[in-house]
Predict the structure.
Amino acid sequence: MATVFFYIPDQLHLLDLSGVLQAFQESNYLGEDYQFQFIGNQESIDTSSGLSLASIVSFEGLATTQEDIIFIPGFDTHQAIKSEEHQDFFAWLNEANQAGTSICSICTGAFFLAKSGLLSDRSCTTHWRYVKKLAQDFPSLRVQANVLFTKDENIYTSAGIVTGIDLALFLLEERHGAQHAAEVAKELVVYKRRQGTDSQESVYLQYRNHHDERIHKVQDWIVHNLEKAATLESLAELVHLSPRNLTRLFKSQTGITISDFRNQVRVEKAKSLLTHSEYKVEHIARLCGYSSPKQLRTILKQQLGYLPSRIRTS
């Protein structure tokens, strides 16, 4: 029987805790037997959203094994980490590391791991907003930018928020196989299993930082109709603009052309289908709006530097 320990710091981010906890709870519903312990330096804390959590137990005296997992969720970074206040916890973490326990951070929880010394000369990551600070504050770390999660021996770090769920699914797959992880993902309504090396910046979101509903409507149509042929004229008619005005407005609002946006979405969808489906390359090419498998292979080679076969075997 394995225990999942959740360290509960003050100003905890709730989703960093609840997403991972629910993934392991669903694993239990499917036949596994994980026990949960909520540990910390205080019996109760206030989360960053104002909700109070109580019944937190001390970690002192608790022993961990190679089968156990420790999660350190993210917390409000306005709360400075004072090393002297956490030396006992850092010592406990190092003992757990010696026992071979899987130790995981989510979001800014990586700063706790870094201060404990467990991330020295290891690959790690955190939320994209804090990657630069983590690297500056701890030069001995091999901080990875723009990845969802990392694994370095028994130490795992994730980018934060919903990537904690991605990391939890990865751990469940390591322990119980791909089918079990897929069943948990289905229960969580996680329609796409993401890999650790996937980008934190999604093409579906990164060009959406504007307020023009007409351009959002065009982007939505492209995303949901990749397999359909679309001309500039038909897209312009969709939002009652001239082709020339749509071209100008799209570029000014998003920073890229309509063609570039469509190509990036196609590549992203092709990568997802190659990774998470058993469709033949010919079918995937059609779903992504390519005229042939050869065109798909050519585009992937140009955009990513490798062919569909490499994505399928990675």
Q: What stands out?
A: The mean pLDDT is 88. The first strand starts at residue 2 and ends at 7. DSSP finds 14 helices and eleven strands in the chain. The longest helix spans residues 258-276.
